[in-house]
Design goal:
Blueprint (H helix, E strand, L loop, with lengths): L3 H12 L11 H10 L4 E2 L42 H5 L4 E4 L1 E2 L12 E3 L1 H8 L7 H8 L2 H4 L4 H21 L6 E4 L8 H17 L7 E6 L2 H12 L4 E6 L2 H10 L3 E5 H10 L4 H8 L4 H15 L5 E5 L4 H6 L5 E4 L1 H9 L17 H4 L14 H7 L2 H28 L6
Parallel strand pairs: 2-10, 4-5, 5-6, 6-7, 7-8, 8-9, 9-10
Antiparallel strand pairs: 1-3
Helix pairs in contact: 1-2, 1-18, 4-18, 5-7, 7-8, 7-18, 8-9, 9-10, 10-13, 10-17, 11-13
């Protein structure tokens, strides 16, 4: 039912408006991938990959490590079976593929997943993905068809499609599945909460356990406040687009289950801009600004006993990954994972050492300033956010909002499906 022609025309129009770093694969690339029967998903967060029907999941084969079973901080010894660098680093942090292609699915099966507007667009462009039925069922749902306004009908279909796809993924990945909350609500606390409750009602209808779900919310103050209220109800949240310590600390205080920091994007911003005090302080001390933010946030979470798990995304190379060993999740691109897999794990390697860099024990000795230890509120967070976090957060929200709009426009063009 989904039309690749509709995707292409929509994509060409919208991509002109979107920042390059936030675009989904180009229309030409998407069309070529459709013709080959495969689609490359650029995931922002937990990786998402529609599996081939013949692929069978085995949690033992996934790239996964329990944070509670990580080696001691000073350990550089390699355990039995750690034959390559990927095995070695997986003993310290949970390594999740960032970009997964169907052809690479068996090599790097994801341990968790994100369902997003971008994923829905990709599913509609595939001729035979196992998730097409999940989207088609949403398009044909009578409860959506009966709604009076076009806006409510398309929103209903989008919600149903997200939940249906997520319900399929929950059966396939051993970890949690994160559902993207419409970024057009990023500055509306009540709107975010209503949307999450709407999605949860749909999850209840298909019997998806709440402990298998996360809800992905932008790190605006309104989003963080929504996370606080949702977490108080026992609903797990995933705060994304974190680019400053103020956002990370506020999200931790709110009790967010997962906090996602984009290491490489902060580095990119620093290469082309100036005037951000937090970034300049890190650079003056000889640190990469993205890695420094992960380190400070990790130490803050563990020193003060917050429950949040920290996710380092936009990791660009092996050195980034080795510098972050011990963080709960590392989202790594395939080229880095392949390099790790192809490299034997050599104890006391001159270039890379298999040592956990971030630990709860060392976090207790990290010193924070009085300004960093405030009870964060909307005013203090806004005042502490520098130009990098303001610009990158705004760009991220805009990119996600455009994706959600594109999905609804696509569904509007292909609804009603036959026999509805």
């Amino acid at each position: 039912m989904c039309s690749s022609r509709s995707i292409k025309s929509n994509c060409e129009e919208e991509q002109k408006k979107m920042p390059l770093s936030l675009q989904t694969p180009s229309c030409a690339t998407l069309s070529a991938s459709i013709q080959k029967g495969r689609w490359k998903m650029l995931a922002a967060g937990f990786s998402v990959t529609p599996p081939l029907p013949a692929v069978h999941f085995s949690p033992r084969r996934s790239i996964r490590a329990s944070a509670s079973s990580s080696p001691t901080p000073s350990s550089s010894s390699l355990g039995a079976g750690e034959n390559n660098e990927l095995d070695a680093v997986s003993a310290f942090s949970e390594i999740v593929p960032d970009t997964v292609v169907f052809d690479d699915f068996e090599r790097f099966p994801p341990t968790a997943a994100t369902v997003s507007s971008s994923l829905l667009l990709g599913i509609c462009g595939l001729p035979d993905t196992v998730f097409r039925n999940a989207v088609d069922m949403a398009l044909a749902d009578s409860s959506c068809a009966g709604l009076e306004t076009t806006e409510s009908r398309l929103s209903c279909i989008s919600n149903k499609a997200m939940v249906n796809v997520s319900g399929d993924l929950v059966k396939l990945v051993p970890g949690r599945v994160s559902t993207e909350v419409d970024a057009r609500l990023a500055y509306d606390t009540n709107g975010i909460i209503r949307k999450v409750h709407d999605l949860l009602r749909l999850y209840n209808e298909i019997d998806v356990p709440h402990d298998r779900l996360l809800f992905k919310i932008p790190a605006t103050w309104q989003g963080i406040e929504a996370a606080r209220l949702l977490e108080s109800e026992g609903i797990q949240t995933h705060i994304t687009f974190v680019y400053s310590f103020a956002q990370a600390a506020a999200a931790a205080q709110a009790g967010a289950s997962v906090i996602q920091i984009f290491v490489g994007r902060l580095r990119d911003w620093a290469r082309n801009h100036s005037g951000d005090t937090e970034i300049e302080t890190a650079i003056k001390s000889g640190e990469d600004p993205g890695l420094a933010l992960v380190r400070r946030s990790y130490n803050y979470i563990h020193k003060y006993g917050y429950k949040s798990k920290l996710m380092a995304a936009a990791v660009r190379n092996k050195q980034d990954l080795f510098s972050l060993l011990g963080v709960d999740y590392v989202i790594a691109p395939l080229k880095v994972l392949q390099s790790l897999k192809d490299s034997p794990a050599i104890p006391d390697d001159e270039k890379y050492s298999f040592v956990r860099k971030l630990t709860p024990e060392t976090a207790t000795h990290y010193n924070f300033t009085n300004k960093e230890l405030v009870k964060w509120d909307q005013l203090s967070m806004a005042s502490a956010m520098g130009p990098a976090s303001v610009e990158l957060l705004s760009a991220g929200v805009e990119g996600y909002a455009n994706q959600a709009k594109r999905v609804e426009e696509l569904f509007g063009k292909i609804w009603p499906p036959p026999n509805v």
